[in-house]
Request: fold
Amino acid sequence: MKPMFWEICCGSAADAIAAWKGGARRVELNSDLFHGGLTPTLGALRVVRREAPGLRVMCMVRPREGGFCYTDTEYAVMREDARAFLENGADGIVFGFLHEDGTVDEGRTREMRALIGAREAVFHRAIDVTPDWKAALDTLIDIGVTRVLTSGQRPTVPEGAETLRAMIARAAGRIEILPGGGVTPENAAWCREHIGTDSLHAALYRTAWDRSTAGNPSIYFGGAVFPPEDRYLLSDAGDIAALLGSAE
Reply:
């Protein structure tokens, strides 16, 4: 049995460095995982490149939360961000373009694929909201996308296992299917066995504390959800190391 290959979903440079210290060989670098992962800063990529030599870094290019049908201005920003990441050593770009009806925007996907060139082009979980995943997958194969990140059109990978098996069969080695979403150390071995995959994508966090806001807990800097302002999520190298061995 081949060793499991893990891609670690990271919300910051610190997360990516922790993943590398824990033994990860590839990460997806984001910001704002609360909204599913948005474009990270260029500074984050540069720090990861400096502090985690040899780590493969896939940079998310997603300018906002709330869908995947972007305005012309948002699309222009995405192209500029992707170009900057590639010029600064990103190993690949993670993106997703849909029309208002949820189908793959073939034109923009082709243009982004061409911009990425010889590096990896990853279509993210936008495929999980398409009305026909088979048609979407065929389009991405035709365009030459490297990999698709998907939970099998269900909230989590275990729930989408049947569709993930079907996706892998339809791909037939022409595009990589990377199961991701709700993968944990507790279910990783089950996912491997029931999906028939040798690669998984997962995020793993513990709470970190920042007491600098404790003097006035009535103040909130975010939206209407009012999350506590004295804590945040951070990856831990030891936790990542344990995750990497959980499906062997």
